[in-house]
Amino acid sequence: LKEKTEDLKRERRLAEDLLHQMLPKSVAKQLRKCQKVEAENYDQVTIFFSDIVGFTSIAASCTPLQVVEMLNNLYICFDTRIESYDVYKVETIGDAYMVVSGLPERNGSRHADEIAKMSLDLVAAVKQVVIPHMPRGRLELRAGIHTGACVAGVVGYKMPRYCLFGDTVNTASRMESTSLPQKIHISSATYEALLTDDAYEIELRGEIEVKGKGKMKTYWLLGNKNYSVQN
């Protein structure tokens, strides 16, 4: 009986760990208690999107197994790196990687700084990711960041997902899609949020046409004056 109890406890811990990988701990706790998880409004968060430059053509030259192996190497690298920052990984869709800071746990005005440091780290880290079937090839990242209000909540019952909604999500995605290889494209809102500490090297990109948004004044995040990227 004692052995069976220990086995049950071990299996329960494994199930809880898996749930915490899929959902924030605070949300998972409510779901385990069969409580309804209410959607919540956040006044200020910072959202990061990235994808792999030329992923479609890279994938076309690979077998499905090679694509999976390549993305697995990339995401293991990224997932390990982001543990150093106060951020929450929302999801991956194909080669797209989405991370947020400021929710589900609010962190005052630190969200932009946490995402900025993380993004510089990931752009540096992607160059070290080996493509097993292309040993001489190197992946390039295209990244975008935006700061603003957001609503977050759990969607679905069979396989619940913690999803983000609002214009901030769309704008962050647009910052990524209009970015360039190995560049971090940030909006004016994120630029202003990062100005408070004067810790970042930022370059004006100028006004660009953004689908669904019209003309937007945007910037390139180049580096941090006080922070060196992990190697």
TrEMBL record:
<dbReference type="GO" id="GO:0001653">
    <property type="term" value="F:peptide receptor activity"/>
</dbReference>
<dbReference type="GO" id="GO:0005525">
    <property type="term" value="F:GTP binding"/>
</dbReference>
<keyword id="KW-0732">Signal</keyword>
<dbReference type="GO" id="GO:0004016">
    <property type="term" value="F:adenylate cyclase activity"/>
</dbReference>
<dbReference type="Pfam" id="PF00211">
    <property type="entry name" value="Guanylate_cyc"/>
</dbReference>
<dbReference type="GO" id="GO:0004383">
    <property type="term" value="F:guanylate cyclase activity"/>
</dbReference>
<keyword id="KW-0141">cGMP biosynthesis</keyword>
<dbReference type="GO" id="GO:0005886">
    <property type="term" value="C:plasma membrane"/>
</dbReference>
<comment type="similarity">
    <text>Belongs to the adenylyl cyclase class-4/guanylyl cyclase family.</text>
</comment>
<dbReference type="GO" id="GO:0035556">
    <property type="term" value="P:intracellular signal transduction"/>
</dbReference>
<dbReference type="InterPro" id="IPR029787">
    <property type="entry name" value="Nucleotide_cyclase"/>
</dbReference>
<keyword id="KW-1133">Transmembrane helix</keyword>
<keyword id="KW-0456">Lyase</keyword>
<keyword id="KW-0325">Glycoprotein</keyword>
<dbReference type="InterPro" id="IPR050401">
    <property type="entry name" value="Cyclic_nucleotide_synthase"/>
</dbReference>
<keyword id="KW-0675">Receptor</keyword>
<dbReference type="GO" id="GO:0007168">
    <property type="term" value="P:receptor guanylyl cyclase signaling pathway"/>
</dbReference>
<keyword id="KW-0812">Transmembrane</keyword>
<protein>
    <recommendedName>
        <fullName>guanylate cyclase</fullName>
        <ecNumber>4.6.1.2</ecNumber>
    </recommendedName>
</protein>
<keyword id="KW-0472">Membrane</keyword>
<dbReference type="InterPro" id="IPR018297">
    <property type="entry name" value="A/G_cyclase_CS"/>
</dbReference>
<dbReference type="InterPro" id="IPR001054">
    <property type="entry name" value="A/G_cyclase"/>
</dbReference>
<keyword id="KW-0547">Nucleotide-binding</keyword>
<feature type="domain" description="Guanylate cyclase">
    <location>
        <begin position="46"/>
        <end position="176"/>
    </location>
</feature>
<keyword id="KW-0342">GTP-binding</keyword>
